[in-house]
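Hi V.,

You were right to ask for the full record rather than a summary. Here it is.
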Amino acid sequence: QFALVESGGGLVQPGGSLRLSCAPSGVAVNSRAIGWFRQAPGKEREGVSFISSDGRRTEYGDSVKGRFIISQDKAKNMVYLQMNNLKFEDTGTYYCASSALKIGTFDQRFYGNWGQGIQVTVSS
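Predicted structure:
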């Protein structure tokens, strides 16, 4: 077990941007796939994006394609989620998680370590 710590959330107006960070503690970011998931009030948790352990494969949920960018910084041992053109429906608690399935997946069953979550609120 190791910890994942999210940061960078907050309140932003529609059309604005935020960058979320995920810091795995005690494990190299390039040894596991990292995924971002979110949960809005009253809704199930959904996959937002993931990046493979080698950083070569990235995938995005349909609702964020073209607006969000996931990236990996091996030197800093961090994974980032750049969120642009934010919409009201992007509001929710965002979680980063790690998977031993190195190619990555949106299947949450393959993610064994989860962060505590961080709030993102898009509001005018």
